[in-house]
């Protein structure tokens, strides 16, 4: 059994839930500090120098380094946080092994990859192979909500290339869409619901905004698509308004998710929607766009050819062939690429299992991923 399995069990049993911007009554399982503490002890036990980087209260990136005296430095990056556990039908922190799978929140996204990277770092330190690259392992916080951790890391990390962990079924991702998120608010005038004509219903106004955003998404679909990624999109994922059923609401807010193609500027996306809404014939009332709370650029494949080839050779040596794909979801890789580090995404597990109510990862994929990554960092 791969050494990564027992490490993964340990990690799954340490809650590291990202609150995702919500208020929680029970916060016993929130934040990444338990995992960070575990990682620090692991690195010290392995003889690997490490440092912590405070990002937010109880939320620290941690960085470990293996120095081979090489001219090449490879960055391995993985996030510590998971999504919440509501509605899970298994013990989210059990780490149960059954039928060749390990179950629990984060097993697939993305503690499986973290366990693999830890196993690789420990093996490097024990074996000290000739010809290995220098390796930096960076474990970031807050990837699932606002990418704050990687934004901090990208300011200080230096490397020749980066492999970012996400469940890709051992395929190489060299391109993905970006994402930008913000809130839009409509205002009204509250009154008793028995006389609604005396007020202005902010939810009704928002209904017209939402319908117009659906039209905007159709308009985005007329733009030239990227052959491997498709076209840009926009979606309203959350709406909130009103205080009671018998009060005409004076406030309503939605959360907007805009997916970007390489070359699109995340900071310009809200203004583009605003201009569309202001010229829409049905929107004859004021609305407010709140500041962007998440901005992640798209991952452009340009500049990563050498890394793709190197990782591809390692995959070929372990499983016989490799595949290079593009995906619609965002990752930490694009922030690193924007900082000048050629980056790809790679890891064990299937994205279809991420965030599910019975999340699991294949033990076979863990073992294969460990061998692949070890070959990448040792066969320069």
* CATH topology-level name of the largest domain: Aminopeptidase
Helix content: 25-40%
Classify the secondary structure makeup into a structural class. Answer: alpha+beta
Query: Are there runs of 5+ residues with pLDDT below 50, and where?
Result: none
- What is the CATH architecture descriptor of the largest domain? 3-Layer(aba) Sandwich
CATH class category name of the largest domain: Alpha Beta
Number of domains: 2
Instruction: List the strand order in the largest sheet.
Output: 1-2-6-3-7-17
| Cα-based radius of gyration, to the nearest Å | 23 Å
Average pLDDT reading: 96
Order of helices and strands: HHEEEEEHEHEEEEHEEEHEEHEHEEH
Q: Name the CATH superfamily assignment of the largest domain.
A: Zn peptidases
Q: Let me know the number of strands.
A: 18
Beta-strand content: 15-25%
- Number of helical elements: 9
Report how far apart the termini are.
27 Å
Using the alpha-carbon principal axes, give the shape: globular
Described by strand count, sense and barrel closure, the largest sheet is:
6 strands, mixed
